[in-house]
Amino acid sequence: MGSTSQHFAILGAGLMGRLLALALAQQGHRVQVYEAASADAKGSAARAAAAMLAPLAESAVTEPSVVRMGLYSLSRWPQLIEAMHQPVFFQQNGTLIVWHRPDEPEADRLHRHLERTAAELPALAPAQRLDAASLARTEPALAGRFAQGFYLPEEGQLDNRELLTALLAQLQDAGVSLHWHSPRKPEDFEPGAAGQPDWLIDCRGLGAQHAWRHLRGVRGEVARVYAPEVTLLRPLRLLHPRYPLYIAPKPDHVFVIGATEIESEDRSPASVRSTLELLSAAYSVHSGFAEGRLLEMSTQLRPTLPDNLPALRWLGRRSLQVNGLYRHGFLIAPALLDATLELLGAGQSALADRLGLSVQTAPLAPLPCGS
Question: What is the model's pTM?
Answer without folding.
Answer: 0.95
